[in-house]
Amino acid sequence: MDWLDSIKWDRDGLVPVIAQEAGSGDVLMFAWMNREAVAQTAARGQAVYWSRSRQRLWHKGEESGHFQQVHEMRLDCDNDVVLLKVTQLGHGDAEPSIACHTGRHSCFYQRLEGDRWQAVEPVLKDPEAIYR
Question: Which value, in Å, is the radius of gyration of the alpha carbons in the chain?
């Protein structure tokens, strides 16, 4: 049996994926992978996701330069969620660690405060400067 057959894919052939920063434990983002994305991620050692909006494989960082080096791939107890332990890379040592298309470190930058969501993480780099 192929190791990919152990994953419980949804009806669209996708599995949810959480990217967690290996060093800090920060949850950086949530995305989706299809079978090919999981296989490419394992082979490359860099995160490759399935973009539902683009309907194609998306090598994280292909436009922004903010790649994710994958240290571990884990499968949850129900075999239906993948966890990637990653190092979020930028253009160099001076580049901040940005995983979110909003220019923030993590996509989970909003916190519920009372009855509204409040942005609690700073924009590290203007998205206009990241995506051309």
Answer: 15
